[in-house]
Design a protein that fits this description.
The chain is mainly β. It has 2 helices and 9 strands, in the order βββαββββββα. The relative contact order is 0.23.
Length: 132
């Protein structure tokens, strides 16, 4: 149902994103990504690695490294997908927020809420609020 391909939205050497290989209906589960939780005290270590831009908040006391396709979804302030944290199964479950056509890139709002327009950490550092 999904595949990783080159994305025009992603900067950098790897510029990848997650794309639909077939039509996906609104509300349909797209991907269930397992997580590796870690205590917040370890953020200071992760901040010095390439993982710093890819970790998620995981409750009050933990962060999480999301496996599977979870790290490869790109950001949009008008996403076509959203995610829920499932603490029982230790997964991030990605769902279609709108109907998604085959070939479309699947996008989430990195702020966690589809309507949250707050500038992201990488835009704050650059002093920009680029809308994607």
């Amino acid at each position: 149902m999904i595949e990783v391909k080159k994305s025009e939205l992603s900067d950098g050497e790897f510029n990848r994103g997650v794309f639909a290989t077939k039509d996906i209906k609104k509300g349909q589960l797209i991907h269930s990504a397992p997580v590796l939780p870690y205590p917040n005290e370890q953020d200071i270590l992760i901040e010095h690695t390439v993982l710093s831009d890819y970790v998620y908040e995981y409750g009050i006391n933990h962060g999480a490294i999301v496996l599977g396709y979870g790290m490869l979804f790109n950001h949009s302030y008008t996403p076509n997908a959203t995610y829920d944290i499932n603490f029982d199964t230790h997964t991030f479950d990605y769902y279609a927020y709108t109907d998604i056509k085959a070939g479309e890139e699947i996008l989430i709002n990195y702020n966690g809420d589809v309507d949250d327009k707050e500038p992201l950490w990488f835009n704050k550092e650059q002093g920009t609020e680029k809308e994607e």
